[in-house]
Amino acid sequence: MKKKRIANLIMVVIIVLIAAAGILGAGHILGWFDRSEAAAVLTDIRSLIAIERSGVSYSVGEDLQLRQGDVLKAQTGGSATVRIGESYLSLNAGTELTINDPSVAAFSAHVSTGEVFCSAHGAFDISFAEEVLKLENSTVYLSVHAGAQSVGVLSGQIAEVQPGQQCTWVNGEKSTGVMDIQSLNDFALTCIRSCPQALCFTTAQIDTLEAERLAQQKQELEDLLNSQKPTDGKNEATTEPPATTQPPATTEPPVITQPPATTEPPVITQPPATTEPPATTQPPATTEPPVTTQPSATTEPPVTTQPPATTEPPATTQPEVPKTYNCTITIRCDTILNNMDSLNPDKAAYVPESGVILQPISVEFTEGESAFDVLKRVCETANIPLEYSWQPLYDGYYLEGINHLYEFDCGDESGWMYKVNGWFPNYTISHYKLSDGDHIVLCYTCKGLGTDVGAPEWTG
């Protein structure tokens, strides 16, 4: 019995040791025990950032200390920052970065693809393709894609490239020119705006460019929306009178009402040449079929037989064209920005940096349309995912998700609400009939069942 107990104890110890070894091994790979302040750290993680370390690939968490050989991959909608002391690298979605040396004193990394915003207070190296950038007290924007790479210098100097200039490699051929602010994408503009250093582009220039782009996008969307016919109910284009209500072409007098060619006197009625009668017996001109036997102008169907203008459907019989009005609509989820710790990590990619999914735009609608009709039309046109379901109990539509953000994605009280002119109706969005000038806002609430977006406190 004693031997059996000892054997069981040994077995337990072995199991504990195996488990401990597994935990220690996993902790080593995951960086649980890395606490050096002299190494680069991955932080400001947004959405999914994957890392390959020691042959294992997994999604990383906040404040991961980096090691040599780590490969970082920012997934769609993801972004992150590598902090190297006072310097940093911002990674855009789709970027792959390999850490060659994680130490703050001699940091170096290689960009395989994607976009990186580099702000160097000290000195470190960034390589891409066959090039190596030696950064020191400078700020650059690096774009690396197959067949084309570019480096825009925003502050400091890289080799012979001055601030405001850009070096471009296309299929290995290098050229240098002026850096055009219009060529910068939203990621670059966001990084420039948040950079504490003085750069060649000012915040005012960024504001102007973003305002111009936003105005253009809004105008294009509004033009597209307002060029479309509403697709619901009585507002269909088929409410126009059908073509068959117009007097058909067959109401014109048919050709057969004209005297046919056979009504001319047949040739046999002319006296033959052998019996030519004296001149006096020639049928006088009056013996020709008198003009009166030809259809005279007066025998033409009188004008009154033509479909008179009055046969057109009178104006009173035309269906009335529905009146057109205007409203504005916007979709925002900015409350999530203050509750990112409660957000499902998989949904971070769908939350815009500004928290605004759709900027306020003006939309035409026809009498009788609901706020839901306009929302549906706008989302379809702007390619914003919209999911809804019919609720028989309320005889209306329930908004399940917009732009892949759903109820409970950011806490137990989170979900979509709508307000019109600052008022939160207590019925479904498909029941609200629009009025001219209405302002519709779709807003995502995280806490307080709407109180965080301006709704009154719920007392039910």
Could you list some keywords that capture this structure?
460 residues; alpha+beta; Jelly Rolls; Ferric Hydroxamate Uptake Protein, Chain A, domain 1; 4-stranded mixed sheet; 31% strand; flat
Helix-strand layout with pairing:
Blueprint: H1 2-30, E1 41-46, E2 49-53, E3 56-59, E4 64-65, E5 71-74, E6 79-84, E7 87-91, E8 96-101, E9 108-128, E10 131-145, E11 148-155, E12 165-170, E13 173-178, H2 186-194, H3 203-226, E14 324-332, E15 356-366, H4 371-382, E16 386-391, E17 396-402, E18 405-406, E19 415-420, E20 439-445
Parallel strand pairs: 14-20
Antiparallel strand pairs: 1-4, 1-6, 2-3, 2-5, 5-8, 6-7, 7-9, 8-9, 9-10, 10-11, 11-12, 12-13, 14-15, 16-17, 17-18, 19-20
Give a short summary of the structure.
The chain is of the alpha+beta class and 460 residues long. Helix content is 16%, strand content 31%.
Fold and architecture overview:
The chain has 460 residues and is of the alpha+beta class. Among the domains are: 36-201, Jelly Rolls, CATH 2.60.120.1440; 324-453, Ferric Hydroxamate Uptake Protein, Chain A, domain 1 (Beta Complex). It contains four helices and 20 strands. It has helices at residues 2-30, 186-194, 203-226, 371-382, and strands spanning 41-46, 49-53, 56-59, 64-65, 71-74, 79-84, 87-91, 96-101, 108-128, 131-145, 148-155, 165-170, 173-178, 324-332, 356-366, 386-391, 396-402, 405-406, 415-420, 439-445. The strands form three sheets. Strands 1, 2, 3, 4, 5, 6, 7, 8, 9, 10, 11, 12 and 13 form a 13-stranded antiparallel beta sheet that branches. Strands 15-14-20-19 form a four-stranded mixed beta sheet. The longest helix has 29 residues, at 2-30. It is flat, with a radius of gyration of 40 Å. It starts with a helix and ends in a 15-residue tail after the last strand. The model is unreliable at 231-299 (pLDDT under 50).
